[in-house]
Amino acid sequence: MPKTIVVPEGTSKPLAPYSPGTLADGILYVSGTLPFDKNNDVVHVGDAAAQTRHVLETIKSVIETAGGTMQDVTMNHIFVTDWANYQAVNKVYAEYFPSNEPARYCVQCGLVKPDALVEIATVAHIGKK
């Protein structure tokens, strides 16, 4: 099956061998997205809400680059470093998915950089282009 690598304009080089997104058969898989700036440094240190907004805006840019919208999201995989941040993450998350919420799960774990408080990976069905 042919696939298309999706890289929004201005995306920095990933820390590991992966692409921001992969589109195959109308399904977009967005890699785990952390609150990184262009230099792969963590932004909004200590602020789970601001980090969540940054992550979701980054995911949105991948989806839009592939020709979709946030309404096309069908599944989110959410990783938090501390359950104490769960409410802040959910408050911002609800702004991006106010209705017809996608399926999701959330787990507590360590992330690749200690100052990162949240990571989200996404699946979106944007249709065959």
UniProtKB/TrEMBL annotation:
Stored PANTHER family: 2-IMINOBUTANOATE/2-IMINOPROPANOATE DEAMINASE RIDA, PROTEIN HMF1-RELATED
- The protein, known as: 3-aminoacrylate deaminase RutC
The protein's matches in Gene3D superfamilies, at most eight in alphabetical order, are given as: RutC-like (3.30.1330.40)
Which EC numbers does the record give? 3.5.-.-
One GO BP: uracil catabolic process
Instruction: Cite the entry's keywords alphabetically.
Output: Hydrolase
Matching CDD domains: YjgF_YER057c_UK114_family (cd00448)
Q: Which family does it belong to?
A: Belongs to the RutC family.
Note the superkingdom of the native organism: Bacteria
The UniProt entry, under NCBIfam families, shows: RutC
What is the species listed in this Swiss-Prot or TrEMBL entry? Agrobacterium albertimagni AOL15
- Tell me, what is one Gene Ontology molecular-function annotation carried by this entry? deaminase activity
Q: Which reaction does it catalyse?
A: (Z)-3-aminoacrylate + H2O + H(+) = 3-oxopropanoate + NH4(+)
Q: Lineage of the native species?
A: Bacteria, Pseudomonadati, Pseudomonadota, Alphaproteobacteria, Hyphomicrobiales
Which GO cellular component does the record give, naming just one?
cytosol
Q: Per its database record, what is this protein's job? A: Involved in pyrimidine catabolism. Catalyzes the deamination of 3-aminoacrylate to malonic semialdehyde, a reaction that can also occur spontaneously. RutC may facilitate the reaction and modulate the metabolic fitness, rather than catalyzing essential functions.
